[in-house]
Amino acid sequence: MHMLNVYGGLATAFVVVGEREPTQALLSSRNETGKSGCMTFEQDETVTAPDTLPLVVGIGGTIGGVSSTERALRIALDAVEKQGFRTQMFGGADMARLPLYDPKATTRTADERAFVEAVRGASAVIIASPGYHGSISGVVKNALDLLEETSRDERPYLADMPVGLIATAYGWQATGSTIAALRSIVHALRGWPTPFAAAINTQVTKFDDEGGANDPAVIEQLRLVGRQVARFAPLSEPAN
Fold first, then answer.
1. Is residue 27's pLDDT more than 50?
2. What is the CATH number of domain 53-235?
3. H-helix or E-strand spanning residue 76
4. Domain spans, the chain
5. Do 118 and 88 form a contact (C-beta atoms < 8 A)?
6. Position 108 pLDDT exceeds 80
7. Phi and psi torsions of 156, nearest 5°
8. pTM, rounded to two decimals
């Protein structure tokens, strides 16, 4: 199922995954050089990630253990690392420690400060959210609300940053609206959603503890999110 969003004349597309047909329709098969009919990427190579490499921050998950959302995000971040970046992930357990955002608070907890500083130092971000009642989860939204702390920075919010997007839901209905909500939020935070977003039906796709999934097409979609973020990240300068 192909979906197209148009914002101010700029068309951006995403594909719901978990079925073979959409993947085959959107992604042409690659040859041995790694060339695709849509884009061309260098072959992945495993690299170490010292502190001097550009940072990509992953934000996503749910409260109550490692979720499909968090596993999907990890696959995308692994693809980022293979393109020569270091990554830092704030999963469900990390976001659960963030208090409800209070814009009038005069102090912030250590967890709040760590989250804000990580985003300040990032060249790109990937956000993954479950679809709850047609939109993003409260725990993800609360974390994004905390970025108001950067409003007076030279680079506020997610300004000029490429942002990859992932949505998971138990059924197709919430996947599209969750991606649309994420795109709207990223635009409000002055970021640039990357062209491809992965929407995953967890009724169809099952993730395992080893970092895989029962459908190789889903894994490739998530890696594509990571590769696109890595491609655009060098254009963004971290705030610190």
1. no
2. 3.40.50.360
3. helix 68-81
4. 53-235
5. yes
6. yes
7. -75, 155
8. 0.79
